[in-house]
Amino acid sequence: MIIRRVLFPGENSLDQWRQILSILGAPKKEFFDRYGIQISENQLEERTAVPFEEVIPDCAFAIETQMPQHHLTADLARDLLKKMLVIDPEHRITVDNALNHPFVSLWKTEEDMNVPINNYQYDDAIELEDRTTAEWKDIDTAQRKRKADRFGSETSRLGCRDAGDALRECV
User: Fold this and answer.
1) Residue 64 near residue 168 (C-beta atoms within 8 A)
2) Whose CB among 8, 65, 152, 167 lies 3.0–4.6 Å from 19's, allowing a Cys bridge?
3) Which UniProt keywords apply (predicted)?
4) What is the pLDDT averaged over residues 133-147?
5) Using CA atoms, how far apart are residues 108 and 94, in angstroms rounded to an integer?
6) Which of 26, 74, 73, 22 is nearest to 53 (CA)?
């Protein structure tokens, strides 16, 4: 969303993997070994990661959304994204560490962090149903409305008209 285009625009699974590798670089051989994937040294070409300043340049961030006093800077956003977009889960930032990252500190509240654990189990049976695109859109719209009615939207909770207002006016 930041760069207003798909970061890894693959046409199929293999192309998707190539797109990811072209930006994040290739994982180390230990990654493949851990998952029992046989790969020879010559298959594991040395691909280095593209610097995130090139992937997501400063111009992608609107000046009015940068608030250093609240840790909303392009550098901190890139730092969090770089830590999240790691192929090897052993080296990826944990959820707890991501929630404690300075970039999200503006939105993190103790109220949000200390909610009771929900024992709801997702039922994936709905995904196997044969429906038209219009029917799926209706289901999605209904679910979003139920969620908004139940929890309210983030911006309305903050008393703002939209997300831009949330950044500008509600701090």
Assistant:
1) yes
2) 8
3) ATP-binding, Nucleotide-binding
4) 88
5) 16
6) 74
